[in-house]
Design goal:
The protein is 49% helix and 10% strand. It has a domain of 62 residues.
């Protein structure tokens, strides 16, 4: 189960293509609070991903969370023994 979930998350944010390779895409300009921008930039550096890849990943994870929530399920972070560490809650 663990590897299937990890693969699903990896599939959410595939490696980025150069702008010339992106034949079908839409550009979105967003304004982030300075703190959020710094956090995104730091996370990108620490995870060796681009900020765009992280935003794609976040959208994919939000999609998974929304679908699971609609089925009455919860998302959680568990330790190696399956014990609950954190429950992830979507705020409305």
């Amino acid at each position: 189960m663990k590897s299937a979930v990890n693969q699903e998350v990896r599939d959410i944010a595939p490696a980025s293509k150069s702008q010339t390779q992106q034949s079908s895409g839409r550009r979105l300009n967003i304004i982030l609070p300075e703190k959020t921008f710094r956090e995104l930039k730091t996370l990108a550096k620490e995870s060796n991903r681009t900020m765009t890849e992280l935003l794609r990943l976040a959208i994919g994870l939000a999609q998974i969370a929304t679908v699971e929530e609609s089925h009455g399920r919860k998302l959680a972070v568990v330790d190696h023994d399956g014990r609950l560490v954190k429950e992830l809650v979507l705020l409305r």
